[in-house]
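ok so for the tutorial part 2 we go from a plain amino acid sequence to predicted structure tokens. step 1 is just haveing the sequence, like this:
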Amino acid sequence: MARKSKNKSPKFKVAIVGEGYTEWYYFTNMKQYERFTFKVEPELPKHSNYKTIINTARKKRDEGYDLIFCVLDLDRIYSNSSEKKGYLTEKSKKKANNKIEFIETMPCIELWFLLHFFNSYSSKIYLNFEQVCTSLKKFIPDYDKTGKFLESIRIYEFLLKEGNFNKADECAHKLTKERINSDNPFFNFTEINTLIQKLKEL
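step 2 — the prediction. this is what the tokens look like for a chain of 202 residues:
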């Protein structure tokens, strides 16, 4: 059963800006299932590059949103040195990013989905979506990034019911902690769990 939210006033406006359909459907389904009373508007930019995503987040802030989460996959950004440099430069602009929180995953959001099915912690390195998806399909055989599939499966609810959210959260925390001591820029981690926790605490 979905929780009854005791969150802030509906006037408190939260925007979630993600890269594509996967993020849009995941967070839309989450909003519906958790019955958040404050305003959450997943935003689907026309172009899924970091510049458009960050600019969209800043635009939402300027429109009066109280908090904006900027959700990004790092695999493509970190695989190109100029992209990585440009992204880190934009991310470091504290004034320009006021009220914006960056939520990152290496390599992609599907890593967070996969963690729901882990029986024990693993720091195996997945370099891209294709590698993560190969493992994810062992648990969701028909997994597809299309809007049609993501809507039909109700991805947030599916992961809660068929997977283990607490185990995913535990593994995500361990990955984030272990990443601090790693010199591998492609070390896998995700902050999606942090975003969810913050939304529930608002």
